[in-house]
């Protein structure tokens, strides 16, 4: 009888499905929505967002790096105190994505290995877990 219970527990644990990733990770920006409603998909260079345990967030644009702080509660995300290295040389897409992130993101949602950052117009940014 105890073997049946042991094998049942082993079977249940081995069938565990993938859980949602934690916000505290490195994420790659897949797409964002501009104010006009058009979706921009980045293909030529990666933009990474790194959320740390100490409530800091680092954004690696295609040339420069930006740092700031975040607080989260439930699904709400608050961003503050951002600064960047000299931002003159980044692409238009990098600057748009950065400005969208710091100006309008208010909530986040994680589904598996996908992070959706939302603002006033629905899903504003979609990121995937960086492996």
Key descriptive features of the protein:
9 strands; disordered N terminus; globular; alpha+beta; 2 helices; nine-stranded antiparallel β-sheet; 131 residues; single chain
Topology, element by element:
Blueprint: H1 2-14, E1 26-33, E2 39-41, E3 48-51, E4 56-60, E5 65-73, E6 76-84, H2 92-104, E7 107-111, E8 114-119, E9 122-129
Antiparallel strand pairs: 1-2, 1-3, 1-9, 3-4, 4-5, 5-6, 7-8, 8-9
Describe it for me?
By secondary structure, the protein is α+β, with helices and mostly antiparallel strands. 20% of the residues lie in helices and 44% in strands. It has two helices and nine strands, in the order αββββββαβββ. Strands 1, 2, 3, 4, 5, 6, 7, 8 and 9 form a nine-stranded antiparallel sheet that branches. A hairpin with a 4-residue loop joins strand 4 and strand 5. The longest helix has 13 residues, at 2-14. It is globular and about 35 Å long. It starts with a helix and ends with a strand. Mean pLDDT is 84; it is low at 3-18.
Find the structural class using helix and strand composition.
alpha+beta
Note poorly predicted spans: 3-18
Helix content, binned percent: 10-25%
Continuous helix count: 2
Q: Distance between the terminal alpha carbons, to the nearest Å?
A: 42 Å
| Strands, total number | 9
* Apparent shape: globular
Order of helices and strands: HEEEEEEHEEE
User: Averaging pLDDT over every residue, what do you get?
Assistant: 84
Strand content: 35-45%
């Amino acid at each position: 009888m105890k073997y049946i219970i042991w094998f049942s527990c082993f079977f249940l644990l081995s069938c565990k499905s993938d859980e949602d990733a934690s916000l505290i990770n490195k994420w790659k920006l897949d797409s964002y929505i501009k104010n006009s409603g058009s979706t921009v998909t980045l293909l030529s260079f990666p933009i990474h967002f790194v959320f740390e345990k100490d409530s800091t967030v680092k954004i690696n644009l295609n040339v420069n790096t930006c740092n700031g702080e975040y607080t989260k509660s439930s699904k709400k995300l608050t961003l503050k105190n951002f600064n960047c290295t000299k931002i003159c040389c980044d692409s238009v897409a990098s600057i748009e994505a950065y400005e969208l992130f710091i100006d309008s993101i208010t909530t986040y949602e994680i589904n598996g290995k996908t992070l959706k950052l939302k603002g006033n117009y629905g899903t504003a940014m979609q990121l995937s877990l960086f492996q």
